[in-house]
Amino acid sequence: MADAINSQSILSRPIRPFEAPASDIERHNPTAAGQESSDKPSFRDILGNTIQQVNVRQQEADKAIEALATGKADNLAEVMSAVEKADLAFRTLMQFRNKLVSAYQEINNMRY
């Protein structure tokens, strides 16, 4: 049968810092255990690729608008689709930036 939890039993136990077993650390973060993970892209690579994809979407939208304005294209639905894709990609990137800045500010405001 389990012991009853009361304030005396809680206070009588020594406080120990949390220590994760080494196997848990290795499983969740292989580089922490000294293993290099070269097959995974870095945060910098992912961010750079995402920005590049947003830029490509915006350029495609600009070309579609220009083609519609000059009469080279007459399908308004395709132009609107390209513009909406570019807008959605840009708004998503802005939200990511906002979250990143917020996390940076929160970390910066922490006191040790």
**Which structural class do you get from the secondary structure elements?**
mainly alpha
Radius of gyration: 26 Å
End-to-end distance, in Å?
42 Å
Q: What low-confidence regions span 5 or more consecutive residues with pLDDT below 50?
A: none
- Percent in helix: 55-70%
Number of strands: 0
Overall 3D geometry?
elongated
Task: Tally the helices.
Answer: 4
The main β sheet shows up as: none
Give the helices and strands as they follow along the chain. Answer: HHHH
Strand content: under 5%
Q: What's the mean pLDDT score?
A: 80
Q: Mind explaining what this structure looks like?
A:
This protein is mostly helical and 112 residues long. The protein has a domain at 43-112. The chain is 67% helix and 0% strand. It has helices at residues 7-12, 22-28, 43-70, 76-109. Helix 3 packs antiparallel against helix 4 (76-109). The longest helix is centred in the C-terminal third of the chain and has 34 residues, at 76-109. The chain starts with 6 loop residues before the first helix and ends with a helix.
What's a concise summary of this model?
This protein is 67% helix and 0% strand. By secondary structure, the chain is mostly helical.
Write the layout of secondary structure elements.
Elements: H1 7-12, H2 22-28, H3 43-70, H4 76-109
Helix pairs in contact: 3-4
Kindly list the characteristics that best describe this protein:
single chain; 112 residues; mainly alpha; 0% strand
